[in-house]
UniProtKB/TrEMBL annotation:
GO terms for biological process: intracellular zinc ion homeostasis. This is Cation transporter. Signal peptide: none annotated. InterPro entries: Cation_efflux (IPR002524), Cation_efflux_CTD (IPR027470), Cation_efflux_CTD_sf (IPR036837), Cation_efflux_TM (IPR058533), Cation_efflux_TMD_sf (IPR027469), CDF_Transporter (IPR050291). Its main location: membrane. Residues 207-285 form the Cation efflux protein cytoplasmic domain. The lineage of its organism: Bacteria, Pseudomonadati, Bacteroidota, Sphingobacteriia, Sphingobacteriales. Belongs to the cation diffusion facilitator (CDF) transporter (TC 2.A.4) family. The keyword Protein biosynthesis does not apply. The chain crosses the membrane at residues 7-29, 41-59, 79-101, 113-131, 151-170, 176-194. It is a multi-pass membrane protein. GO terms for cellular component: plasma membrane. Keywords: Membrane, Transmembrane, Transmembrane helix, Transport. It is found in: Membrane. It comes from Sphingobacterium puteale.
Amino acid sequence: MSKQTRLVLLSLFTGLGLMLIKFVAYFLTDSSAIFTDAAESIVNVIASGFAFYSIYLAAQPKDENHPYGHGKVEFFSVFLEGGLIFIAGAIILAKACYNIFFPAEITHLIQGIYLIGITSLINFAVGFYIMKRGRALGSITLIADGKHLQVDAYSTIGLILGLILMKLTGFQWIDVVISIILGLFILLNGYKLLRQSIGGLMDESDTELVQDVVAILERNRKDEWIDVHNLRVQRYGNELHVDCHLTLPNYLDLVKVHDEISAVDKIVNKEMSVRTEFFVHADPCLPQCCRYCQVADCPIRSEQFKGKIAWDMDKVTRNQKHFSYAVADQK
């Protein structure tokens, strides 16, 4: 059993146990706010169940029908989780609005607060652990699952504070107000997860990942690597697929070109925290490249070296060689 699978099972069984405790608290108190918390726990359990399946599927090797692997199923998992959270938020708001007109009598409030207080502590601890391990393993499913558990813990803390205030003041309407606020908070978090998953499915550029790759290339660049451009990064589960154009001296033979491309691949894989599949298109240099080419004793140089051009995200991601930029760091 993989590390990801064990973490999802931890989330699943934790969610089941906490859901039961929260519903006990709801039936004990008949509090609309506690019902809000209990309803979201159902989402936690369903989402963790699908996350378990998506982690299993994402770990399957590439095949003829899925040459890039099965990693993108993790975005579907995040989409489902976000959708369920959004639906739960809508149901919670509807229940809160109903209770405005038909309020329920709240009983055994202190016992209910104790019960959901315990669930909050457990949720936060498990969510923190799963998020930390998810980042280390490069799994967006685990990160989303852990974040959801922590969001649930934060909302429960807010719920507890509101219920304590209601107990001290005796104002029953506070219960409905808390439920509405938490419902809106849950809707917002559901929207954020939906937005993240749709962006991943549409291959939206991950600025942070691209910056990491560019920084690695800049730190390790060789004189023969005249420029890198048209760099793109796609995430497939816990793997990255990167492609770019690498400008090399046009007099290099095929073996040397292959060696340089392999060197780029090895450096990025060594320094990135996730497995990276690199596709490099080799471009021959042009006379206009001479002004920033750092190759010493070049046999075909047509213009003197003017200065080094620093590689940054703007230059490396554009589909053009760097001779169109002003030369920086003049010598």
